[in-house]
Amino acid sequence: MSRRESSAGILLDSLPSPYRKPNQAITYFIGGDCWICTSHKPSSTGYPRIRINKQLFNLSRWICLLLNGPGENNDCVMHTCDNRMCINPKHLKMGSYHDNNQDMHDKGRGYRGGSPTPPPPRLGEDNNLAKLTESEVRFIRWAVQYSTHQEIANVFKVDRTNIGYIVNRRTWKHVA
Question: Cα separations (Å) of 144 from 34, 70, 102, 119, 132?
């Protein structure tokens, strides 16, 4: 991968003077067709940000508006490459939120390969956070006749409230 630096010639020189900083440059490296921004830190959503006149903007949105101007459907910037750090103008286009959601669905980037609904919760042992097995849950429901919740919890190394939830079927409802 080669390393490039835009010397603020193309992007920044075309800005009106209040928005232009003489020493501001955008550095990126080319990974395939994408230009991955390396000079600007990404936000919590993963998009690189740029500060202009004490205001933060998504760099991809700023580039797209700068090169294409404001359009009618300029709600959001769509990355045709689906790479949030990419700033290649050929990969950026303005669109509405509907267009962006439709693009996400068409490419299978929503829930479960494009399904509009979230996946069902993973129950019992299928849940990677489960500390008990179904046979242990059955045993707990039987053992509660002879022991306290705290004693059972100590044996299985879980909290006492979990035993109450199991016995009262607030959790592990699918286990008979």
Answer: 60, 67, 52, 34, 16
Residues of CATH 3.90.75.20 domain(s) within the chain? 3-106
- For the domain spanning 3-106, the CATH number is 3.90.75.20
pLDDT tens string 93-118: 888 888 888 888 788 776 655 556 66
Tens-place pLDDT, residues 29-70: 676 788 888 888 888 888 998 888 888 888 888 888 888 777
- Give residue 38's pLDDT: 85
